[in-house]
Amino acid sequence: LENEDLDFFSYQLEKKSVFENCWKIFFVIMESLEEKQSHIVSAALDLLPKLDILHPSWLNCVLKRGLVHDNDSIIRKTLEITLKVTYYASFPYEQLIEALNKIFIYEDFFCFEKNKLFFLLKDFLRQKENMENILGCATIQALSPIPLFCFTYILSSTEEKHLLGHDNLKVYIDRILDHK
Fewer CB near the last or first residue (10 Å), C or N of the chain? Predict the structure, then answer.
């Protein structure tokens, strides 16, 4: 099916085996996300780059499920993957904020040589659309004190905060701080 509104299932007959393999990998990853053992899910998540020919919405399905997984190490790995992928309109910002609101994410957060999450999040926020969407979600979902501190620390140390303008950034920060 090739249509601007329905390109979720584009399929090229000349690449039939490539697409079939890609769909098998997608279902292996989705099935593995039902497991609790991190070694099973982690190995499956390593296959994510092989989904590059599918519509980004399918990658979004995997990321959404990984970001709300029961296993903390799977959430952390999915979070790191999520902060590295190419972004698009249906990006899972709400699930990303939910994962960023977990306190275990911030263990060793300020030991920069140990925690690459700091740099991934800082790079992620360098893109104006990401910063706007994350701040927008953070105004809807209450942040716990530790994630709020780390998040504001990153915002204060991000050179690109000027992308939103001082007034817009102040509005977002006031909304986050006033959230009950």
Answer: C
